[in-house]
Write a structure and sequence with these properties.
3 domains, pyruvate-formate lyase- activating enzyme, eight-stranded mixed β-sheet, globular, 503 residues
Length: 503
Amino acid sequence: MKILCLGNNQENTDKFVTILAKRSGVANNGLVDSYLFEPINEGYYHTSLVDVSLGGIIGLAKNFDQILMLDLPHKQWSSWKLLLSTYKLCKDLDAQGHDVVYKQNKNIKSLDYWKNLVQDNKSFCIYPWVNFVEAQDHNVLCARSTHKLITTKDKLLGNWQTNAEYTKLRNKMLKGERLEEHCRVCYDYESKGIESYRQFETQDWAAVLDLQSIEDLNNIHNPYYYEIRLSNKCNLMCRGCKPEFSHLIEKEFNDHGIDYPLDDVQGYTGFDVIDIHSLSKETRVYLTGGEPTVMKEVYEFMRQCIAENKTDFDFTLGTNCQFISDTFLELADHFTYMNFAVSLDGYGAVNDYWRWLSDWDTIVANMKLLEQHGHNVSINIVPGIYNVTNLHLLYEFLDREFPLAGMYLQINHNPWQSAYNHPNKELVMESMHRCQQTRAYQTDGKSNKTSIDSLYNHYADPNFKYDPVALQQFFEYNDKLDHARCSHLGDYIPELEACRKLV
């Protein structure tokens, strides 16, 4: 029998496997560090998601009789991310019909607990217990909600556990009451079979904070997640963006009289909501914009953290990766858990057309530079009408060049840019199918697999019909951008230009 053990990428993994092998009277055949590996001898082998990518292990699994997740305490995993990703991998392999063995340790029991909780309670989300998102003079539950919770941060800070508005929200969730005004985005995702933020983040935070049950939420006395949007200063003009998030788009719209149906503007916040001295390895700070790498306030915050010796929190920048200065990189290298969530919305010229003013080669070079410096790089993708027929090219590229990168998808639902409204269903289905053949598809990133599957199923439905009115609105809007930018859709995405004749 050939058994593949999944562990923590530390020396104690090999020791643990050696003990298991001796008990069974077989050999510990050592580390597997390539997804191309084929076992010859009977006995135990071991690997981790650090040694082989998630997609690679899924491919490896067919060569083994059994997959075993090692019984390692939470503290023995090199990071909570590795623990959770390994657990999710085992669940996926189990669902695919592999013989998967879970050791009944505290970690597995607790992770199963939270997974089952969000399945059974369609309202529960961990955000009200951990999340702090401020928009000017008020708080929102998360970045996807525009509904006001608290009008000033002074009413919240120092009073996190007992705040009346948050307490009311928490109690409603515990009772399973739907909160349409706050949570409609997640409800919409789940109705389409897409993994929602509440599903993903609840399990994520349970792993970060080592929460065993819902009773442990009572011990959370302060926010652990801060989302900071400083301004709309940005160096790009993405076609799916709006003035709220890019000052260049704001200027362009004003100069050319372009209208955009705006959502409620959340506004911006600042670093004053964060007590730097309270930052810990469990704290997450997420900076977005605009573009954080071109904001002097971000540099100042990083310098202050370094000066206060507070550099071991989970620090993430949502970035277009177009500008990584030597100064910025020098500062980033001081932080223990520095993550770059890089926005890519296509391969090569498609990305540069959508994310106007970007340069593909520069982005790729900067991503490789960040990885060389030991920083984590993940990919944020917005599937929409521009890229839904060519998304496989990006996935195949990531397989080749960034096999360890996580994938995070947020589908564009705007009617005039919707990923669900491309007239050429055959091209979309072909692209989604090719995405499904990649290792990048197999990552456990937020809404990755489920978004691709949802799009494939939507277009495979024999009753699929596109909305010609929304398609006409798309061409009218994009033509205005092309006119202002002296560009032409057909030069970048000819298959989309060909659909113009259908409206």
